[in-house]
UniProtKB/TrEMBL annotation:
It is found in: Nucleus. Its cofactor is Fe(2+). PANTHER family: BIFUNCTIONAL PEPTIDASE AND ARGINYL-HYDROXYLASE JMJD5 (PTHR12461:SF106), HYPOXIA-INDUCIBLE FACTOR 1 ALPHA INHIBITOR-RELATED (PTHR12461). Transmembrane segments: none annotated. It holds the Pfam family ARM_KDM8_N. Keywords: Biological rhythms, Cell cycle, Chromatin regulator, Dioxygenase, Iron, Metal-binding, Nucleus, Oxidoreductase, Transcription, Transcription regulation. One of its GO terms (cellular component) is nucleus. This is JmjC domain-containing protein 5.
Amino acid sequence: MRERIRLERENCYPRLLHLRFEVNELVVGSSLLRIYRECAFATQRCDFERSEKLEGFLLTLAWEKLNTGHYSQVNDAWRALYSATAACKGYRLYAQNKLTEALRACDMGLIMGGDVDGRSLSAFASHIHSLCTPPTTLIIKKRIADEPEALSNSQQIRRIDCPSLEEFFEFFARGEPVVMTGVVSQWPAFAKWSFDYFNSMIGHRTVPIEVGSSYADDGWSQSLTTVAEFMHEFIENESSRGVGYIAQHRLFDQVPELLDDVIVPDYCAFGEESLDRVDLNIWLGPAGTVSPLHTDPKSNIFCQVYGKKFLRLIPYSETVNVYPHEEGFLTNTSQVDVEHPDVSRYPLLKLAHVSDCVLSAGECLFIPHAFWHYVKSLEASISVSCWFSTPPPSN
């Protein structure tokens, strides 16, 4: 037993039996926890035929729970059960020398359930990835998307170089967007991150992607693929499926080592929570990706690490001028294509106060709480959004 514990610590193996304590028995029931415990025992005894059957049962049941109703309303106990069982599956496949399958099992646990036991699942996944054959080097042809033309009622967003907290607070207090230079350029990511870097570091990792010109379009879809497959289809080449995007993904939770490359801006301290509660997401894709005009429930410091993006903003107080969808899942999204607006159909847009900017690598943009914003990649781009909670607008 001591030898196994030593190996678990040295090789980043998850503590399978211990993971049962991550699952709330009052929610999932004692019988399911007994089945999980048997699964973990079978895995560690190398009774893989038995453990595989139990994994299948537990993963299927947890998957159904995770996909019943809205994902945000699912009790965390089911996420923990899914992750713990995925760890058993990853452990078994790893022991069978099926590294690619083991890594995918771990990633499915991280994506659907989250990390467990002090990041043991993400550490195990990183360990497995380090043993895989490195993906081939990328050959990227530079492609550029057209910058949207200025509207008759648009103006450029103000720019300031590395503002002090006091200088930034003036913009924050009056809810005014501002482009800040000299902030992201201090991140380790600014010197390190590229598509080749991500391909070599996490090429075999499974991630969710979006396919289609915009999430508001009928042909839009989501799927799971490896980073290397995504790079080959959408970054190296122009896919027949259209534009692909790793969008709003919590990759920092899946691969915590990436956190060493970023510095949460001190400006987020003006939020209602501590800096360690800032919600970080990565956006990675080719030229031409579009996020239609929409609003988010938090303030955002949108950081451009690689490539260029165009952003168009409209204050939340002018919501009536942007014609949001009135029902369904898109009530936070405008019906207007603000790159090529049909002002005869949406005449109030001409009354809106529109602000534009092009964000280059090393720059960031403060997007005030609930501001409507449209984003278009002008080049292959890597961005990080830093969402932080602030009081809602008064109007």
